[in-house]
Give the backbone structure.
Amino acid sequence: METLNKHTTQQPSKNDLLILGSGPAGLTAGIYAGRAGLNTKIIAGRERGGQLTGSSKVENFPGFPDGINGLELMDRTIKQAELSGADIIYQDATSVDLTSTPKWIQTENGDKYEAEQILIATGSTPKRLGIKGEQKFWGRGVSTCATCDGPLYKDKDVVVVGGGNNAFHEALHLARMGAKVKLVHRREEFKADETLQEELFSHPNIEILTNSELSSIQGEETVKSVSILAKDQEDEKQIKTDGVFIAIGTVPNTDLFSNQLELDEAGHILTDQNLKTSTDKVYAAGDARDSRYKQAITAAAEGAMAVMNLK
């Protein structure tokens, strides 16, 4: 556990509730807490809105029959949280003490915030492949966000790695923009929703490579090709590509709490049915604890539930 910065002289901000995270779980919790009259601060981090801001079109969130851009949805939710009375701090948390009374969080600029109760909604981070060339070309042809980087690949060749909903969304988004997509998946079967599979399988710009894995990424200043190894072959196959989009799952952002809360083997925070953690008056919601659903709607619901369960 990190200790408080010795150079901090400012008196701590005292609150009823501190919320860590600004995705659907944290912001919905902020809405409910603000409406309940709780003095609430959301430590949002510098990248507000969570992973949903990288979705070009969210089609399964209630109230938007035609879909909505993920960034727009989160901007609306941020505004609603603010109007409800929550105070949002756009800084990263660097230190926490979940066992003291009151509990506290310190941010990167040395500000300290105290509260009797804390809700952790820090979400998760996309996994990496861990192959040669991935780090070298990160941000120079290797990405985890088609919404962010897709416009750079119009009419170009790209590779998308993964077999779940996120990978299918990435591939379809790139294909709709005119990219020629090769979807590489290490298994024969896919975990993506049936509706997504039907759309992807019928798209003329998408080629599917199953039972295959990327073994390395090559290039000069930017990505030029990838090496792919199929399970039924001994030799690698090199494919020319202008970009690689990795969509193979996520890792919960819980390292800051590893010595203060009980976690599962993957790092998700363990809670009871009321979203209480192993530490008194500390709750968790969303992808930081959810190892199964990982949906915006379930994260938002958990944010509301956690606040309603506060003692």
Notes: DSSP finds six helices and 17 strands in the chain. The chain has a mean pLDDT of 92.
